[in-house]
Design a protein that fits this description.
alpha+beta, Immunoglobulin-like, five-stranded mixed beta sheet, globular
């Protein structure tokens, strides 16, 4: 790349509502001599709403030196420039004077520089994280260095509905939580090999570097492993099913039912006292609204029930899954998840209708409807307003699940008492919802 000629594109962002169109900027070498320049066109950098773009042709540079110099200049201007993006596009290969070894690149808008009040998040190693006014972004690092493939989670209760957004860090530990509703957020890091970091307050438009916490031991790290990693500790008795059939059954059911989560692997919240772990299990499966059905299925297992008692006994004594799940890689890191808390604290999950499945462009960004099993309500989410509501489903039927055993979490509260039992809603081509 040494001695080649490039076209350079510079993006400059103003953190306030100022118009930078036709503003001039200069490109200078390390001695301060201007070697090129350009004018901000008013166009926006792709994927942003406020990053102005300018282009300068015939910039001769050595790419590695250029990037190092850019890093230095960005640091010096970090208190004045909100965001600076740079792209070098090969224009033609021309030999240049070898004495031009470094080119310091900075966007300078003379008339507006004093107005720039944003900050620039600086990545360890020289890469920067550019954000808009509705983003939070920065770098995640632990004592081991930048943490790749970990989750950054922002939560808030300031909106009408409790809201959370989560993203994944890249190879350099960088993250951007994009397009956040205006609110105060608590931001923290979670990842395999870590324990949850301390929650840090932040608001959209803020650069926030986060300190990840390496787990002190394998058991601490395993607390955030998926439930099926803990379930893998179960010593399954030999039966009529092949290992392949067992795996298929596990994948089919347990992605939702999550056997192996804290509520199933830790019986410390069980009600009463028992002579053995097996006796505790026999009572454990009778509790809650599904108790009678669970107890009948469990009893039918006969002596094989002991496998569950052995499983939870070993976990109580310190057993944990030794193999860590892989962290997200590749396109898995592009995933952005938005979550809203809807329905009731006692509600079970249900199916959701957001569009006509035959025409999935219908009802874009519209209301989302969810049937809540174990209740007689249809939950409604407005993702644009971050609001939730509930529709009572009328029914002339008798009350069901009005006499269920006490549970360790809800006591004697009849959390499933209802007259209707919604399962799967669907939306038609007119936007009508059927349950």
């Amino acid at each position: 790349m040494v001695g080649e000629q490039f076209r350079m594109k510079v993006g400059i962002k103003c953190p306030i509502e100022c118009d930078l169109t036709n503003g001039n900027f200069g490109i200078c070498d390390p001695e301060g001599t201007q070697v090129a320049g350009g004018t901000l066109t008013g166009d926006r950098w792709p994927g942003t709403s406020g990053l102005y773009v300018a282009k300068s042709k015939n910039v001769r540079t050595e790419v590695v030196g250029c990037m190092l110099a850019v890093n230095q200049i960005i640091t010096e201007l970090s208190s004045k420039i909100c965001a600076l993006n740079i792209a070098l596009e090969e224009q033609m290969k021309l030999r240049v004077n070898a004495r031009v070894s470094l080119l310091a690149v900075a966007g300078i808008v003379a008339a507006s520089l004093a107005l720039f009040t944003g900050v620039q998040a600086q990545q360890r190693g020289g890469a920067s994280v550019a954000i808009d006014n509705d983003d939070i972004g920065g770098v995640v690092a632990s004592a081991k260095g930048p943490e790749a493939g970990v989750w950054v989670i922002a939560e808030t209760t300031d909106l009408p509905a409790k809201f959370a957004k989560m993203v994944v860090t890249d190879n350099q530990g960088r993250y951007v939580l994009p397009d956040l509703p205006q609110a105060s957020y608590q931001v923290f890091v979670r990842g395999y090999g870590l324990v949850d970091s301390v929650r840090v307050a932040a608001k959209p438009g803020q650069h926030l570097d986060l300190k990840a916490v390496v787990a002190p031991d394998g058991r601490a790290a395993a607390q955030v492993y998926p439930a099926n990693y803990w379930l893998s500790l179960l010593r399954i008795p030999k039966g009529d099913l092949s290992d392949k059939d067992v795996v298929i059954e596990t994948k089919r059911c347990y992605s939702c039912h999550q056997v192996g989560d804290v509520a199933t692997r830790d019986l410390s919240k069980n009600l009463g006292s028992y002579k053995s772990s097996l006796e505790k299990w026999d009572h454990h499966v009778t509790m809650g609204p599904s108790g009678p059905g669970m107890a009948a299925n469990f009893k039918a297992m006969g002596a094989q029930r002991k496998a569950y008692a052995d499983w939870t006994d070993r976990i109580a004594e310190g057993a944990y899954p030794k193999t860590a799940p892989p962290r997200p890689t590749g396109v898995e890191r592009n995933l952005v998840i938005s979550m809203w808390d809807w329905a009731l604290p006692t509600s079970r999950r249900g199916d959701v209708a957001a569009t006509d499945e035959r025409n999935p462009t219908m009802n874009a960004n519209g209301l989302i409807y969810g049937s809540i099993q174990g209740s007689d309500i249809l939950a409604v989410l407005d993702p644009r307003k971050n609001e939730t509501s509930m529709i009572k489903i009328p029914s002339n039927g008798p009350m069901i699940d009005s006499d269920t055993p006490a549970s360790p979490y809800w006591g004697t509260e009849k959390i499933w008492e209802r007259k209707s039992d919604p399962r799967s809603p669907a939306m038609d081509s007119h936007g009508r919802v059927w349950v």
